[in-house]
Design a protein that fits this description.
The protein folds into two domains: about 20-120, Lipocalin, CATH 2.40.128; about 125-235, Uncharacterised protein PF14869 family, DUF4488 (Lipocalin), CATH 2.40.128.490. Mean pLDDT is about 90; it is low at about 1-20. The chain has one helix at about 1-20, and strands spanning about 25-30, 35-45, 45-55, 60-70, 75-80, 95-100, 105, 115-120, 125-135, 140, 150-155, 160-165, 170-185, 185-195, 205-210, 215-220, 225-235. The protein is built from one helix and 17 strands.
């Protein structure tokens, strides 16, 4: 029996290690008050972000995220931002996950299964990025990405989320996300949630994008219609 148990453990470890969390996952849950909530979590190498919003209106509810590792079926995450409980920021948390095939995943002990949306492709920009500069009056103004005040954007193959936060003060400044495409030098965001202004949900914003020396140059007009030129660096 001990041998069979050992063999099963090895096979389970091999199966779990073959699974990949990289990409985006979605689920819908009905809360006690009857509200239908959509959840989305995006995993890139080393970093992840999760968001919850009203499935019908897109009204923002909460978000959290930070670094993560997976050892067998044990995930450990260290939040850099957490809107519902700031005491969790910077504190490692481990829990067990399980897969059902390659397209279903959940935390052990929970009811909701998340469905894989993509595996990190086909987006040209998939990964975790930090804003590292802006162009103003024709001049590039660089930003130190190691400082506590960060603006991060996480992209899978089809989904994106940006988050502005401070790891030192635990302050959260805003977030937004949805679906994106990259076609012929055009980066287009379709907003599904926006913490600062629910009325922006449903907007489609088109920008120019270009990768220069590994940095993402992003230009166009913001959701307010203001011209922007941002530079992002990979984490």
């Amino acid at each position: 029996m001990k041998t069979l148990t050992s063999i099963f453990t090895v096979l389970l470890t091999i199966q779990l290690s073959a699974q990949s969390l990289i990409g985006a996952w979605e689920w819908v849950e009905t809360r006690e008050d009857g509200q239908k909530v959509k959840g989305v979590v995006t995993f890139t190498e080393g970093y992840q972000a999760a968001a919850w919003f009203d499935a019908e209106t897109g009204a923002f509810i909460e978000t959290n995220g930070g670094s993560w590792t997976l050892n067998g079926n044990t995930m450990t995450e260290v939040p850099e931002f957490h809107t519902s409980d700031t005491s969790k920021i910077g504190v490692p948390r481990s829990f067990e996950i399980e897969f059902d095939g390659n397209d279903k995943m959940r935390i052990v002990g929970t009811e909701n299964w998340a469905t894989r949306v993509d595996d990190g492709t086909p987006g040209d920009l998939n990964g975790a990025w930090l804003m590292s500069g802006r162009k103003r009056n024709g001049e590039i103004q660089e930003r130190d990405t190691n400082r506590p005040r960060k603006t991060m954007k996480i992209l899978s193959g089809t989904r994106f989320q940006w988050i502005a936060y401070n790891t030192e003060t635990k302050q959260f400044m805003g977030t937004g996300g949805g679906i994106y495409t990259t076609v012929d030098g055009k980066y287009t965001e379709n907003l599904e949630f926006f913490s600062r202004d629910d009325s922006k949900v449903g907007m489609s914003l088109e920008f120019n994008y270009e990768l220069k020396d590994g940095k993402w140059h992003h230009s166009g007009k913001s959701s307010k219609g203001d011209p922007i030129y941002e530079i992002w660096s990979r984490r």
